[in-house]
Specification:
eight-stranded parallel barrel; 858 residues; 21 helices; globular
């Protein structure tokens, strides 16, 4: 990208300054390192050195990255002499160097509590290792799984630990105690635990003892029934016993993670934890962390016009990122009062070297509206300056690395995320409804033994009444969070609202539930008796589990009898309306939305992920007398058109959102003078094509710069140029001279049509904007002048064609040691069979006259 490309449009610069001067509380917050996106930073072989670490970190900071999470992995072939064993004094020296440089550059530093994943290493023996439950002589015993750490780095290879044993965890952490004994406190922000991938884990030495304490009977009495291929017990009894088994595993894993959290806090670290995949209560596991973290894997088939999602880029049996699963992490954060909810983002977004910023944005927009406000990219690989292009690589990564030809352009995405998160990390959650998650219903199954709850196969959520009701609430626009049994116990009713540790709500909704713990039912009944809105879709049928069954059933019936008949509402939406819980009307318009409460009012984030534009008045679900629109793409801001019809509790705001577009809205319940109005525009005529001789000059990239091209027809430079253009990855400048349309207009909309992949727009020598997301349209403001004009576009493409050429020539660039490099289907990667990927400006390029509109006068 041309180094002179501006980060904000010319119009945005003045609008931002006016908004700040008028009312800082409704303007753009200052962007902090936590607001910016962070990235997982793999250290292959931990083969790092101070000079290259500093060089890469300086590029991170310049590109708008806020911080990194260090995860050492297997190394590069031929670079063994660079390897540094994990936690050795030399490794700790590199870590301290990174932390010091992070302080200098404003970058935060997290680290995985290990190498690869999950926890484990060479000092773990079989007594502390992962085990599975097996049947021997009528008893359950543990059999080693012999699972090894996946993708381990030097010094970290070894057995995976027992994820149900705090004692095993403390033994695992002993080398960390030694390594960090003299390490300066406060340099590392946090420790990270990846998703639950302790394969086959179903037993631990203290399982039977814990089971007895929790459920009041000996699990060994039912050993054969639990593990036999053909059990003889009736399915109801067997499901109850297996439910107790699963409940015990859930508690043991929670105790394990609590031990890790306590250890981390004692050393001054916060913790990020990916709870998904675990055989436990995900809400409690997420809430146990300071920063609950989900992940998105694969891509979503958004109907946004111009958004590419080709067959070659989609995994077989596609893992679709699921909003309702993502809400597990954000709900836990909201209910427990955790300011941040993070996401491992864009894993396997597309095939390697084929991921464009325009494809990244809608995936991030969706999870931001799902309550995530601390994006972590997946990710970035350390690579020394002397490594031949494309450098050291990780096999499941969207390549957020300086070797990517789109690296500078990705800075636009980073700044966009930073602006959005600068608002979404402020205030407190502003959701109305708590939706009870009946985990006991999931655990009450006669088939199988261990039930892991992953982000990939999500039948555990969508096949339950809970999932169906959650989807209904989401589609209808209700703002809600999930709540667990344990979290219900901590919920209070005060000042007319339900109060959890972290937020306040108007109602609790209980979906149709078969099994409910007595304590949960008792507390719900207590809340209802105190005046709280507790809505049962259907009354629960029975208690879960087998232990002390009849005594618990008696207590259950007593609690059930205290509920009044009006507690049950088969029509939950009608019951919510009767309790004055209203949805956000944005959902009816097809818009995704999330809101936050601030001292001034409410902050909203709207995303149009549909195929249709929205242009009209939109009712808000909260009171407002003033509102400011902020465009996170450009940085522009201005006073929104707002009407209340005399009732500030039911305001409407005027929004214009094209497919793929997002806006922030910051409201206040007081009247705030804002002199700078938002620039509403409408088409004032038909688009005019920009035609003429386009001159194309290749500026930067490789493997070599192709010769210049002149053309009157816009199409891929792979078609316009010779062999050099077919294998080129980098930036080319398109230049055309044209006469401005004769018509007069308040503004002009430049539509670039199909851009592969990012275009820096310059008109008459003035930087206007960078078009990097769908739709590729830019308002020109006063940059366009009457008569002759010069349009220059610096367009950067994907790395795909360069990699294709290398594979055609059989250049050995796949140099990593372990899994080396696989494609999106986890098969051997080979780009030689790819067709050429269209590159550059494909157009058509048009100018459309715009007129100013005042929605309040229409």
């Amino acid at each position: 990208m041309s180094p002179s490309c501006s980060l904000l449009t010319l119009a945005a610069l003045s609008a931002v300054s006016l908004t700040y001067a008028a009312e800082p509380d409704l303007g753009w917050p200052e962007v902090t390192r936590e607001n910016k996106p962070w990235t997982r930073w793999w250290w292959p072989g931990s083969g790092v050195d101070k000079a290259n670490l500093t060089a890469q970190m300086e590029k991170f900071a310049a590109a708008g990255i806020g911080g990194v999470e260090i995860t050492p992995i297997y190394g590069a072939k031929g670079s063994e002499a660079r390897y540094i064993d994990f936690l050795t004094p030399k490794w700790m020296e590199m870590l301290e160097h990174v932390c010091r440089e992070g302080q200098r550059l404003g970058l935060g530093i997290d680290m995985a509590t290990g190498t690869g994943w999950p926890f484990g290493g060479p000092w773990i023996d079989e007594l502390n290792a992962n085990t599975r439950a097996v049947l021997r002589d009528g008893k359950i015993i543990g059999e080693p799984t012999k699972q090894m750490v996946k993708r381990a780095a030097p010094g970290g290879e070894g057995l995976v630990i027992d994820p149900y044993s705090p004692e095993a965890l403390l033994n695992y952490l002993a080398p960390f105690d030694q390594a960090f004994a003299n390490f300066p406190r406060g340099l590392v922000r946090g420790q990270f635990h990846d998703s639950f991938e302790y394969y086959g884990a179903s037993w631990t030495p203290k399982f039977a003892e814990t089971f007895q304490k929790m459920h009041g009977y000996d699990v060994q009495h039912y050993a054969t029934e639990l593990l036999a291929a053909k059990p003889t017990l009736d399915r109801d009894t067997l499901a109850r016993i297996k439910g107790d088994y699963r409940d015990t595993l859930a508690q043991l894993h929670l105790d394990y993670l609590r031990t890790w959290v306590e250890w981390s806090h004692a050393k001054g670290f916060v913790v990020r934890n990916q709870s998904h995949g675990a055989p436990g209560n995900l809400l409690d596991l997420y809430a146990n962390a300071d920063i609950p973290e989900t992940e998105i894997f694969g891509s979503t088939p958004f109907p946004i016009p111009g958004l590419r999602r080709e067959a070659i880029d989609i995994r077989g049996g596609q893992d679709l990122p699921e909003s309702l699963v993502i809400k597990m992490a954000s709900s836990a954060a909201h209910v427990a009062g955790r300011p941040l909810a993070s996401s491992e983002s864009l894993t396997w977004l597309r095939e390697h070297f084929r991921e464009s910023p325009s494809q990244m944005k809608p995936e991030l927009d969706r999870i931001l509206t799902d309550g995530i406000n601390h994006i972590f990219y997946h990710g970035t690989v350390y690579s020394p300056s002397d490594a031949a292009w494309p450098g050291w690589l990780f096999y499941a990564s969207t390549q957020f690395s300086p070797s990517n030809p789109l690296w500078e352009e990705l800075g636009q995405l980073n700044r966009y995320v930073g602006r959005v998160q600068s608002v979404l990390q402020r205030g407190t959650p502003a959701n109305d409804v708590l939706l009870y998650w009946p985990l006991a219903d999931i655990f009450d199954q006669a088939d199988g033994l261990v039930m892991t709850l992953s982000v990939h196969d999500v039948k555990w959520l969508y096949d339950q009444p809970f999932g169906k009701l959650a989807e209904t609430l989401r589609v209808r626009g209700y703002q809600f969070d999930y709540i667990s049994d344990a979290q219900i116990q901590e919920t209070r009713f005060e000042r007319g609202e339900l109060a959890t540790t972290g937020a306040r709500y108007k109602a609790i909704v209980v979906p149709a539930t078969r099994r409910m713990p007595v304590a949960t039912l008792q507390h719900l009944a207590k809340l209802a008796a105190s005046g709280a809105s507790v809505i049962f879709e259907k009354l629960p049928e029975d208690v879960p589990g087998f232990g002390r069954l009849e005594a618990r059933r008696t207590e259950f019936k007593t609690a059930l009898a205290t509920l009044t008949p009006d507690a049950v509402a088969a029509d939950v939406l009608a019951a919510l309306a009767a309790n004055r819980v209203a949805p956000e009307a944005a959902a009816d318009a097809g818009l995704s939305v999330i809101r936050r409460a601030t001292p001034a009012g409410r902050d909203y984030f709207f995303a149009n992920l549909t195929g249709e534009s929205f242009d009209g008045w939109l009712a808000l679900g909260s009171a407002a007398k003033s509102a400011v629109i902020l465009d996170p793409l450009t940085g522009a801001a201005g006073a929104a058109a707002l009407r209340t019809a005399g009732d500030p509790a039911s305001p409407q705001v005027y929004l214009q959102l094209a497919p793929g577009q997002t806006l922030l809205l910051r409201t206040a319940t007081a009247t705030v003078p804002i002199p700078s109005a938002w620039g509403y525009r409408a088409s004032a005529g038909q688009p005019s094509p920009i035609a003429g001789a386009w001159k194309i000059e290749f500026l930067t990239g490789g493997p070599e710069l192709p010769p210049a091209i002149t053309t009157n027809e816009l199409k891929s430079w792979t078609e316009l140029g010779g062999e050099a253009a077919k294998k080129f990855a980098g930036t080319a400048r398109y230049r055309v001279e044209f006469d401005a349309p004769a018509a007069t207009a308040d503004d002009w909309l430049l539509d670039l049509g199909d851009v592969r992949e990012v275009a820096c727009v310059r008109v008459n020598g003035h930087d206007v904007a960078t078009a990097w997301s769908v739709p590729f349209r830019v308002r020109l403001g006063d940059a366009l002048k009457p008569g002759r004009n010069i349009l220059e576009l610096d367009v950067t493409n994907l790395a795909a064609n360069r990699i294709r050429d290398m594979d055609l020539r059989k250049v050995e660039w796949r140099i990593m040691r372990e899994i080396n490099f696989v494609n999106i289907h986890y098969e051997a990667f080979d780009a030689s069979t790819w067709s050429l990927v269209p590159s550059g400006l494909l157009g058509p390029v048009t100018l459309t006259p715009l007129k100013h509109v005042d929605p309040t006068k229409s």
